[in-house]
Amino acid sequence: MTTVFLSRDIDPLEITPLDDRRLVVDAFARYRIVDVNQFRQAVGAGGIPAAETRLDSILRSETREILGSVSSNDILSVDRAALMLRIRNGAIEEAGALGLEIIDVRLKRTDLPAENLDATFDRMRAEREREATDERARGNEAAQRVRAQADRTVVELVSDANRQAEIIRGEADARRNNIFATAFSQDAEFFEFYRSLTAYDRALQGNNSTFVMAPDSEFFNYLKSAEGLGGGISEADAARIAEPHASATGAAVPEPTETDTTDTATGAGN
Fold first, then answer.
1. Would you place residue 57 in the very low, low, confident or very high pLDDT band (cuts 50, 70, 90)?
2. Given pLDDT bands bounded at 50, 70 and 90, which one contains residue 250?
3. 247 and 154, same domain (yes or no)
C-alpha cells in the first residue's frame, strides 16, 4: 500500500499571547490517512474535504491554546519550533479519532493585525526620530565645545602675538630714540638740520606744495637763510648729508674743496 502525504493550509488565525500583543498566525499541516475504515466511519461520504474541515478545527484550537500560553517574543523567536511540536502533539489524539496521523505542523507567517501595523510603524518612527534628535543634540553640543575651544585658542594666539609685537615695537622705539639721542649729542646743529630736511621731505610730497603759515614761522628757517638757526652749515656737512642719497641713486658725491677743509678745521678750532 502506497502512503500518500497530504497538506492542509490553515486559515489565518488571530491569537492573543500572554503580553496581550495580538498576532495573526498562518500555519499549515502535513498528515496522512492511517486507518481507512475509521476514516470512512468518521467522515462518511464527505471524504477528504470533510476530514480537512474537522482537522482545521482541531489545529486552530490547539494553536490558539498553545500560543496563547506564551509571550509574543517566544512566538517570534527561534524557540517557536518547540511550540509547533507542542501543537502537533496536542492534535495527534483528536486526529487519530478520524483515522489520520499528523506528520508535522509549521507556522508560515506571524504578523501584527492590519489595524495595529500603522500604530506600530508610527511608534517605531517616533522612537527613531527621538533617537535622531538625541544624536543631533549631542552633535551640536560637541560642535559648540569645539567652536568654543577654537575661539579661545584664537583669542590666546592673537593676544600673545599682539603682546610680542608691542614688545618688539617698544624695543625698536627704544633703539631709535637711543640713536637719535646719540646723534644729537655728537652734533646738535647737524642733527637739527637733518631733522628739518626730513620734515621738508615729508611735507612736500605729492602734488600739493602750498602751505599757509605765519611769516615768522621757524619751519622754513633753513630755506630762508644759509645760516639757518646756528650759523649755517659747511659744504663738507652738506656733502655728508647728500652722500646717502647719492649712494642710493648712483650719483657722484663732490669732494670737499681745500677751502671747505680749511673752514671745517677752523670751525673745529674755534
1. confident
2. very low
3. no
Cell matching residue 180: 637719535
Which of the listed residues 56, 88, 111 is the one where a domain comes to its end?
111
Q: What is the amino acid identity at position 182? A: T
Q: Which residues contact 28 (CB under 8 A, 6 or more apart)?
A: 7, 8, 9, 10, 105, 106, 108
User: Is the Cβ–Cβ distance between 257 and 235 less than 8 Å?
Assistant: yes
Q: Which residue, chain included where needed, has cell 567652536?
A: 147
7 pLDDT higher than 90 = no
- Number of domains within the chain: 3
For residues 231 and 143, the model is more confident at: 143
Radius of gyration of the chain (CA): 57
User: Residue 6, Cβ neighbours under 10 Å: how many?
Assistant: 15
- Domain of residue 136 covers 125-186
